[in-house]
Amino acid sequence: MEDYNFKLYSKLGRDFWYVKSRQDLLKGILGKAFRKKNLKILDAGCGTGFNFEALHEFGDVYGVDLNKNAIAQCKNLGYKKLEQKDAAKLGYKNFFDAVVAVELIEHIDDDFSAVQKLCQYLKPDSLLVLTVPAHKFLWSADDVLAMHKRRYSKQRLRKLVQKSGFRIKYLGYRYFFLFLPAIAVFIMQKFGKKKKNSLESTPKFLNKVLLKLMSAENKLILKGFRLLFGAGLICIARKN
Q: Which helix (H) or strand (E) holds 178?
C-alpha cells in the first residue's frame, strides 16, 4: 500500500460503502466455500486492515503489506502474523486455506509471477479471492494516484489466473450499478484541474444508497450471477 492509499483508507470509516460492501462480500464467499472455521488465511496487501473484520471469524489471519504505517495500524487488530514485505516474496508453501488479494495485483509489475506465488502459498484445492479494476478506458486520476500499473479485461484476468495454477469457479464484474457513475467520474477527472481520489468526494448522504446498491450486487454475485459489466472484476478460484 502506497502512502497516498494509506492516508486515504485511514480516513474511511468502517461503515463507508466501499469498505462495508467489500467485507460483506468476503464473508459471503468464505462462508459459502468453507464449513470449518479454523482456517489459515492470507490477507495479501492487507493495507489498514479493513478485510480483517470479515476474515477473522473464519480462523487465523496473516497480513502482508509494503507500507510500514499500514502494518503498524494493523497490529492492534489481531492478525496472527504481520509482515512488511512484497506479497510475492513470502516463504510459505502449501500453507494457507485461503488467500485474499483485494485490489493488489494491479500494483505489481509482474502480476503473473505474483499470482503464481499466491498459488504456491496455498494448500491443494484451497481458495483464491482476487479483485482488480476493470476496463482500460476507465483509466483515470484514481488509477494514477493509487499507482496502478493497469486495469484488466475479463479475458486477461482469466488467462492470468488459469496459467498460474488455478481453476476458476467464478469470474465476473463488480460495481455493476456504479458503472455509469464511474464513467462520469472518469470524464470529470480527465478534464478537471484538481486531482484527488473519487472516494474522497463521495457525499455522506449517498453512503446509505451506495451500501444498498452494493448489498444487492453482492447477493447476485454470491448466487452465481455473472453481471454484464462493471468497473471492477472478481475472481474466485481453487488451486489445482
A: none
Sequence ranges of the domains in the chain: 3-239
Cβ-Cβ contacts under 8 Å for 50 (sequence gap 6 or more): 9, 12, 14, 19, 22, 23
Q: pLDDT (tens digit, 9 = 90+) per residue, 103-134?
A: 999 999 999 999 999 999 999 999 999 999 99
The Cα 228–Cα 240 span in angstroms is 28
Q: Which residue has the cell 467489500?
A: 22
- pTM score, two decimals? 0.92
Residue 154 makes CB contacts below 8 A (sequence gap 6+) with 134, 171, 173, 233
Contact, 101 vs 233, CB < 8 A? Answer: no
109-115-133 Cα angle (round to 5): 65
CA 52, 30, 217, 147 dihedral sign is: positive
Percentages of the chain per state (helix, strand, coil), in multiples of 5: 45, 25, 30
Superfamily of domain 3-239: Vaccinia Virus protein VP39 (3.40.50.150)
Q: Is the dihedral of CA 148, 153, 156, 161 positive or negative?
A: positive
Helix (H) or strand (E) holding 61: strand 59-65
